[in-house]
Amino acid sequence: MRVEIKEIKKYFGDVRANDGINFQLESGNIYGILGENGAGKSTLMKILSGYQSQDSGDILLDDKAILFDSPAAGLFAGIGMLYQDPLDFPPFNILENYLLGKSKNINLNFSSAAKQVSALADQYGFEVDIKAEINTLSLGERQQLELVRLLAEGAQLLILDEPTTGISAEQKEQLFTSMRRMAYDEKKIIVLVSHKLDEIQELCDHAFVLRKGKLVGQSEVPCPNERLVEMMFGSLPTRRERHPSVHDEVMLEIKDLKVATYRIQIDGISFTVNKGEVLGLAGLEGSGQGLLLRACAGLEEIDGGEIIVDGEIINDQEYHQRRENDVAFMGSGRLEEGLITGMTLTEHMVLAAEEHDFVINWKQAEVETKSKINTYQVIGQSSSTADQLSGGNQQRFMFSMLRTPLKLILLENPTRGLDVRSTNWIWEQLYERRSDGTAIVFLSADLDEVVDRSDRIAVFSGGKMSRIVNANETNVDELGHLIGGQE
Amino acid sequence: MKEKLKKFYILIPVLGALLFISILLIIFGTSPIEAFSAILNGAFGSQQKFLNTSAFWVPLLLASTGLLVTFSAGLWNIGIEGQIVMGALAASAVALNVEASKPVMLTLEILAAMGAGGLWAGFTALLKTKGKVNEIFGGLALTNLSIILTNYMISGPWQPPEGGTFRGTAPFASEALFPLLASSKFSPLALILSISALALVGFILSNTYFGLKLKSLGKNHYSAFLLGVSSDKEVFLSMAFCGALAGLGGAVRVLSWFDSLRQSISGGIGYLALLVVMLAAYRVILVPFIAFFFSSILTGSISLQLKTQLHSSLGGILTGVMVLFVILFGDRKKIFKKKMDQNNE
Fold first, then answer.
1. Ranges of each domain in chain B
2. Min CA distance, B82 vs chain A (Å)?
3. Cβ contact, residue pair A360, B212, below 8 Å
4. A342-356, A370-384, B18-32, B151-165, range with the lowest pLDDT
5. Which CATH number fits domain B59-303: 1.20.120, 3.30.230, 1.10.357, 1.10.3470?
6. What single string gives the DSSP state of each residue in A175-197?
7. Going by DSSP bridges, is the β-strand pair A304-309/A312-313 parallel, antiparallel, or unpaired?
8. What are phi and psi of B262, to 5 degrees?
9. Residue A479 and residue B8: Cα distance in Å, rounded?
10. pLDDT bracket for residue B334 (50, 70, 90)
11. φ, ψ for residue A328 (rounded to 5)?
12. Which helix (H) or strand (E) holds B272?
């Protein structure tokens, strides 16, 4: 099997997720796809597997152009994708799940399915307990099950999207062994999407590097890490001149914090952020940095450790108490977490206000809202509903609802979707708060923003936090290695 | 032009339903005009009939008013039927066990009924917030419980001295009953209470922080939470508020529509109120009119059988078909292709 990707383009509005990508995949090889957040890896893989279709360009399968209308069609043609979250049905048992994807008979043949699953699992060295319910399995086991399903369907090209996040070291070894076997013994094509340099170096024969929707380089691997890092990140922006305003006292102290979700675990991290300091969190999205912010905000339960704000342990405070105690959180989903579709700006302002009378003085509230949206340059009326604003204006409006003064501001992607002028303006507003002693911890999918706006930077990779580096001393090589999971 | 049309959107499915029923009647060989005029006559034919229609309207209005509160908080208070029954039970308990002057009696009965209805709805709220039981299921279970309790009280402790009929208690003392107008079942006092409740709810929903919090919860639970709205507390308060008004409706049923506690004391008023509020698309001002419209059809069709060969359940069928039509065709999103939320303002 040979797969050729020709001039694939996919735009989402102004965003060029894939901007003319070309490469070829030959059977019997393991390929790595590398790239930072928003490089276009996921989009390309989704197009290849039939999950979504390209705007233009061709996928040639053994010189024949193909166009899938669904992942099932992709799989029928021999292309299977293992998603980060396995596409299985948790309340089912293994056989039911297997047959759901496979059999179209009304009367299901469980015993022959059991034989098939066992045989395939044995073949690749997976231990699958056939009677187990899906929701009792670990992520690694579910991955194995999904792989078995894809192989049983006859996948010749297997795409694995960040498969080693959240699975044990043993399972990872098993996975790698089986991937080598599929590629070298069975002459399948394996594509590994990963941000972990070690894995790419260990497993792959060839790496493609994407940046901003384009293929910016490729290399035989193993190769020097520096080479891959340079291709992935290009060069860092020069930091804008500004006066740091870091005070001597500590505002936020994290001691041995443990947080665990189904996908990812933070296992004991400690650090401090001083008053007036800006700490930026970098790393591939979903590597644990969001979990940390939410744990600090009181939106995620912690399993151990201490969160101390301005000398006070706030572990036992709920989100609302922390909010009252001047810890603010702003998530990246605007209309999902923060704004309410169908409610006016004035209504939002009244809800978010610090003090409330039982009877609302609408006239006064409107005057205050008008002055806020003036100050924050929100294009919209006080009577507009939040969903009528454009994305950038929604973001500015959310900033206008933050109280003053605050002890700690926790931000997810604070300027996503804003133009340069608005971005600068938002950060000026945030910097002004530093004189009150406000500490700012933010994550951004945009590495340039993290480098440009932070005083110090921490990088997350698979739930682990790197050492904290000074933003004005670091370089692309150091950050690239940290993002790639290397100290 | 469109703005004006929008106000009358509700007439489209209502007229559709009338047309549909008319065709059905013609198929079964009855004149629709005769049937509808019999219903109209039954509802408004005399002062007595008009007053009885109004008497049916008052508890329905109370329950609907309560539901405006829970609906705006995004809660499906299906258990309102049980809250009405509990109000009726509590008012009956006072009526049967306390002897006092009329003003004292009425005050006690009203307070007991509102307390009991509020408590019952409060249970549903606690089941939801503490026990993760959806308010629909909790409400239905508690409704069943309230009906069983009624049957037990009627056939047991509150049995009339001359022996039980299993249909109801002995009539209450006249001090316990609402003062009625012109020997009808209509109580002006109850009407004043329900109009005041409607005005209060209208004010709360549009002018208070509490009302704004409910609205935000109803529209986006998580954003509201992030903006500082404590959902557990508001869920409890809005449910209890609705339950209290439903309970008052139950008291009006036993103390003016009937004069004793009966089986099926609510007669489905709670479910009817759900339909009223849905038809009104949660708008306060429409609620009394739609409730009155329903009351007219239902009380009007009681006398249907006497005048035509039609069964009195035609009224129920008519209202049912109307609701179906509104749900099917009355969606303003489909009619005017605009966002529902924007129109709700």
1. 59-303
2. 30
3. yes
4. B151-165
5. 1.10.3470
6. HHHHHHIIIIIT--EEEEE-S-H
7. antiparallel
8. -115, 170
9. 63
10. very low
11. -110, 145
12. helix B269-279
**Mind listing the pLDDT tens digit for each residue in A269-326?**
999 999 999 999 998 877 899 999 999 999 999 999 999 999 999 999 999 999 999 9
Report the pLDDT value the prediction gives residue B75, as an integer from 0 to 100: 94
Chain B residues with beta carbon closer than 8 angstroms to that of A387 = 341
Say if the ipTM goes beyond 0.85.
no
Please say if the pLDDT value at position B16 is more than 60: yes
- In this predicted structure, the answer to whether residue B336 has a pLDDT above a threshold of 60 is no
CB-CB neighbours of A208 under 10 Å: 23
Distance CA A232, CA A218 (A): 10
Q: Which two tokens stand for residue A71?
A: 């992942």
SS3 B131: helix
Cα-Cα-Cα-Cα dihedral sign, residues B293, B296, B298, B301: negative
Please, what sign has the CA dihedral across residues B192, B195, B198, B203?
Answer: negative
Tokens of A276: 């007036």
- Select the residue from A319, A341, A343 to test the B interface by mutation, using most B Cβ atoms within 10 A: A343
Residues of B in contact with A323 (CB under 8 A): 228
Whole-number Cα distances in Å, A10 to A42, A52, A53, A455, B88: 12, 10, 8, 36, 65
Q: Which of A351, A387, A401 sits opposite B212 (nearest CB)?
A: A351
Residues of A with Cβ-Cβ distance to B339 under 8 angstroms: 342
Residue B303 has pLDDT above 50, yes or no: yes
Q: Flag if A342 and B209 touch (Cβ within 8 Å).
A: no
- The Cα of A200 is separated from the nearest Cα of chain B by a number of Å equal to 39
Task: Give the closest-approach CA distance of A42 to chain B in angstroms.
Answer: 28
Cα separations in angstroms, B87 against A8, B69, B276: 68, 18, 20
pLDDT of residue A369 exceeding 90: yes
Handedness of CA A428, A429, A434, A439 (dihedral sign): negative
Instruction: Collect all residues of chain B within an 8 Å Cβ-Cβ radius of residue A337.
Output: 222-223, 226
Closest Cα in chain B, distance from residue A205 (Å): 46
Q: Do B159 and B261 meet the contact criterion of CB atoms below 8 Å apart?
A: no
Q: Which of A293, A330, A332, A340 to mutate to test the interface with B (most CBs of B within 10 A)?
A: A340
Quick check: B209 and A350 CB within 8 A? yes
Mean pLDDT check: name the lowest of A62-71, A164-173, A350-359, B221-230.
A164-173
* Six-digit token string for A231: 């291709």
Q: Which of B227, B333, B340, B341 to mutate to test the interface with A (most CBs of A within 10 A)?
A: B227
Tell me how far apart the 2 most distant CA atoms of chain A are, in Å: 75
Alpha carbons B150 and A81: distance in angstroms, whole number: 61
Q: Assess whether pLDDT exceeds 80 at residue A487.
A: no
Residue of B nearest to A356 (CA): B209
Interface test with B, best of A344, A347, A351, A361 (most B CBs within 10 A): A351
Average pLDDT over residues A93-101: 78
Cβ-based neighbour number of residue B129 at 10 Å: 17
| Model pLDDT, residue B3 | 55
